Amino acid sequence: MLNITIIGSGNVAQHLISAFLKTKEINILQVFARNKNNISQQIDSNKIITDYKDLQTADLFIIAVSDNAINIVSSQIPFDNQLVVHTSGGMAIDVLDDKHRKGVFYPLQSFTKNKAVDFKTIPICLETQNDLDYYLLEKIAQILTNKTYNINSLQRKSLHVSAVFVNNFVNHLYQIGNEICQESQVDFEILKPLILETAHKIMAINPKNAQTGPATRNDTQVIEQHLDFLKTENQKNIYKILTQSIQQNG
Ligand SMILES: NC(=O)c1ccc[n+]([C@@H]2O[C@H](COP(=O)([O-])OP(=O)(O)OC[C@H]3O[C@@H](n4cnc5c(N)ncnc54)[C@H](OP(=O)(O)O)[C@@H]3O)[C@@H](O)[C@H]2O)c1
Q1: C-alpha angle with apex 183: 178 to 189, nearest 5 degrees?
Q2: For 34-84, what is each residue's pLDDT tens digit?
Q3: Is the distance from CB of 97 to CB of 78 less than 8 angstroms?
Q4: 34 ligand 1 Cβ < 6 A
Q5: Is the pTM of this model over 0.85?
Q6: Are the CB atoms for 215 and 223 separated by under 8 Å?
Q7: Degrees (nearest 5) of the Cα angle 74, 96, 138?
């Protein structure tokens, strides 16, 4: 049985706790939470601690806190030479305090509290400073998922930036599309099969080859009409930048 301690009680911490609780191989030794109430429904209250002094040594410490807090939190763990990992896509392995054996355990998915996920389908990107720690981290990750990847800090940054484009920016475009529909009293629902087909299509073909629409066809009259139709400067600017980008990459 491997003893894991989780530090944090937000989106990722809560999903990791639920996933580890379902396994036979992992014991969640302790959870550090600034606010006990965040996780009191999930785990025995005697395992929840609010003072770093109460931490015990473990096989692995997973720090799942806001990126800005990772360094300070890692420095609060009152032991040397423990395997301590963070879960961030955007932070390098070096951000962890030098007294630890450092690592990264980055689950590449969008996590929101109370929205269940199937961990088996989630890629977990791993990084450590030595092979022995990698072996342990991989063993733990493979208890949760079939998809583990050895990814260094630079590669992880590129994945994280890509994720901002393919997840956050695309979602923002859904929001704009929804607002444009609402202004004309059209149901956004009508666009959902198109959204799904676009996502399904790039499972089979390269995104560049999948592109269609007025920018790709250089339908200049339609582009002008769309720009004229849009009401806000922000929408016009986004439309122009993306049209230009599609045409330059065509
Ligand atoms: N959400 C995602 O989709 C996702 C996906 C992959 C990786 N990640 C990474 O996972 C990590 C956690 O993200 P999250 O979405 O779970 O964040 P979150 O829901 O905002 O939770 C942040 C947690 O950090 C704690 N915290 C913040 N500052 C702290 C400090 N100074 N000392 C102790 N605890 C502190 C918060 O405690 P309080 O509740 O007391 O404020 C909270 O428990 C980040 O590194 C993030 O980049 C997130």
Answers
A1: 35
A2: 999 999 999 999 999 999 999 999 999 999 999 999 999 999 999 999 999
A3: no
A4: yes
A5: yes
A6: yes
A7: 100
